[in-house]
Amino acid sequence: MNTWIAIGMTAVGCYAVKLAGLLVPAGAMERPLVRRLAALLPVALLAALTAQQTFSDGHALVLDARAAGVAAAAVALVLRAPFLVVVAVAVAVTAGVRMLGG
Q: Mind listing the pLDDT tens digit for each residue in 50-64?
């Protein structure tokens, strides 16, 4: 498939999704279940993207330095560290494990 056709189809698809969101009646967003799902959807999407980027390498599941960084970030979150500290801990642990050859 031509790259420009794929780019064009992706742009049209993104616009269609955006338009569909704007066409949802306001009354539908007032329902408690819809409101709760709309609040949880970004968290679930971010978790899925993080898991996919951390534990996959092409078509295989892997455990490497990225997994150690995510685990260190989880520990920092449990200890209630500020967000920038959590990111710094994850970066430092990932870099350290990679430096050690992991």
A: 899 889 988 888 899
- To which residue do tokens 């066409």 refer? 23
* Residues pairing with 61 in the sheet: 56
Calpha distance 89→77 (Å, rounded): 10
Residues 6+ positions from 50 with CB-CB distance below 8 Å? 70
If 0-12 CB within 10 Å is exposed, 13-18 middle and 19+ buried, where does residue 66 land?
Answer: buried
Helix%, strand%, coil% for the chain, nearest 5: 75, 5, 20
pLDDT at 96: 96
